[in-house]
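Subject: Re: docking follow-up (zinc ion)

Dear J.,

Thanks for your patience while I sorted out the input files. As discussed at Tuesday's group meeting, I've set up the holo structure prediction with zinc ion included as the bound ligand rather than trying to dock it afterwards. The sequence and the ligand SMILES I used are pasted below, so you can double-check that they match what you have on your end before we go further.
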Amino acid sequence: MKITASVAFTGALVLLLAATSASAQLPLIHPVTPRVDAIPGDAWLCAQVATNLEESTLLGRAILTRVQGTLDERTSRIQFRRGGARLGEAIAAFAVESNDGVIYVSDSTDGSTLLHESIHAAMARLTPEDAMREVTQILAADSAGQLEPDLVDLARRSFTLSFTASANPELWGLVPMVLTSAAFSESSTAGTFARLIHATDSAAVTLEGNISKGWGRATIADAYDEAATIHWRYAGLSRPEWWSWREERTFRLVGEALAYQRARRCAASD
Ligand SMILES: [Zn+2]
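The structure tokens for the complex came back this morning:
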């Protein structure tokens, strides 16, 4: 696929590298059958198109408020910035920088894209128990084949972008290849997400990460460990002892599936 070409990755990774905790969103293209569980009215917000940063900020704040239920202090501090060429393959991204949320947007951004990033922002503040509940449900749905295949594919590709961004830049061509072949491995009947988890379990501790530690070059797992620290600091909760880099990795994978799923439901709820 085009997305796995190393040239296509590089542009997106420049931005993602700047913030270890960034998550990327790819274009959501395919319309689907309407679902009944979306709140009426949200569809209108999701269908709006912002054509500059000011409009993106206005629309984004309205959507953040719907997602969080209220525009509290932490949410109101989320900034909107132009991602510009740095977004590359991605069309938007949520990142935590200096303990505040930032949503990077393209010049033109629609409401469902802003909803996707708002879901990331909201998920970053879940309690550990609520976070694990989401993880369990999505992984079970994937294993049971209950997730729409193209949604799984979008989540896989967004996760691969972020995982690759956690690697030493010299490996940016290799990492997507490794993860993509693992996802399509014929030798397993596991769900796509289970395969990705299995593949990243070994790749993350083997491959060099994009952060250095005093004793030398650290691994991708160390980069996720760092991202977990940033995540829990942003949540304003102490990081649970059992929340290792693996939980952070899996939470981010599941977060992509949830963000695409909810944005799709919103867009289809008209
Ligand atoms: Zn995303």
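A couple of observations from a first look. The first strand starts at residue 23 and ends at 25. Confidence is low (pLDDT under 50) at residues 1-19, 31-40.

Let me know if you'd like me to rerun anything.

Best regards,
T.
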